[in-house]
Amino acid sequence: MLIRRAKNEDINKIIELLMQVLEIHANIRPDIFIPRTTKYTIEELEVMIRDDEKPIYVAVSEGNVVVGYAFCALMEQPFSNNMVPFKSMFIDDLCVDEHARGMRVGEQLFTYVKEEAKRLGCYEVTLNVWEGNDSARGFYERMGLKPKETQMEYIL
After folding, report:
1. Cα–Cα distance between 135 and 141 in angstroms, integer?
2. CA distance readout (Å), 65 to 11, 25, 69, 110, 136
3. Fewer CB atoms inside 10 Å of the end CB: C or N, the chain?
């Protein structure tokens, strides 16, 4: 298993994985997510792949097939004047191909992102997980993540 920055030739497989993630989210929150769509277009991915502030890391098998990804974003804190300034690595999206789950691909991706965050001088790695996505939440807890804050909603 090799983990590296995404390249343009990875885009088709990334789109396929984005659709897998979307289906999970659409099943959990059909009021928010549109089935059979993707979060990003091919054109957006082409731009993102070149953006050092929003690196996309991919896990590739020995046959150079993308089996997982981590969309990340470097963020400067604070959000307000009463916070200590620091740099954060935010995982916007992490996915392992449904056929590669249980093979420690996600663990290797997360470990790689942590090491990259350290190398880039980040204080922390953060992410969001949707309520109801119990398998993702369990995975992140096994990786050592703990809740930092909770976003709540009231649907009108």
Report:
1. 10
2. 11, 24, 11, 18, 23
3. C
> Can you read off the two tokens belonging to residue 82?
């009463």
Contact 6, 44 (CB under 8 A): no
* Residue 112, CB-side half-sphere exposure with 13 Å CA sphere: 23
- Geometric angle at alpha carbon 57, from 141 and 111, rounded to 5°: 35
Per-residue pLDDT reduced to its tens digit, 72-124: 999 998 777 888 899 999 999 999 999 999 999 999 999 999 999 999 999 99
Contact yes or no for 32/130 (Cβ under 8 A): no
Domains of the chain plus CATH, in order, are 2-142 (3.40.630.30)
